[in-house]
Amino acid sequence: xxxxxxxxxxxxxxxxxxxxxxxxxxxxxxxxxxxxxxxxxxxxxxxxxxxxxxxxxxxxxxxxxxxxxxxxxxxxxxxxxxxxxxxxxxxxxxxxxxxxxxxxxxxxxxxxxxxxxxxxxxxxxxxxxxxxxxxxxxxxxxxxxxxxxxxxxxxxxxxxxxxxxxxxxxxxxxxxxxxxxxxxxxxxxxxxxxxxxxxxxxxxxx
Length: 206
Known about the structure:
The chain has helices at about 1-25, 30-35, 40-45, 50-70, 80-100, 115-135, 145-160, 165-180, 190-195, 195-205. By secondary structure, it is mostly helical. It has a domain at about 55-180: Tetracycline Repressor, domain 2 (Orthogonal Bundle), CATH 1.10.357. The N and C termini lie far apart (about 85 Å). About 25% of the residues are buried. Mean pLDDT is about 85; it is low at about 185-205.
């Protein structure tokens, strides 16, 4: 069993490296087999076809990234910090990979069901992060709806970003704007309570 597990792991790691470098369209099962040092028949025992290999790669990358993000969340305080960590950790991967390997864009192509599943998984994470704040805010939406807006806004930002640093700046703007919109508002008279008598006098004489 250990040998089988080792062979599957080697095939998965090799497929990840090859798909990252060449994307889906340009990769062949022969490329993956060569990278893994396996015969093609042996590789077909692990992955029945190229699409199955691609799906496993996406699932593996997605699970690893979400685990990595989740591991850091307990140490962070406040919605903005948690959401920023999650969105930067998840959102920068695509543009950083594409900057090195342009064909890696296939790993984020929504035509593939596994990629859509990865988006849904991150959307669920964001919905969980914002659920309490959305429940307290005066917004006519649900955590799932707002999380979907965030996730697909980030996709649009990635396509419009000039480089990873530009993407980072735009994600920060998006997250800070959302977090501050979700901040609980004070009582109706909170703003007026902060006005000093002198300022109130000036307002009356204007």
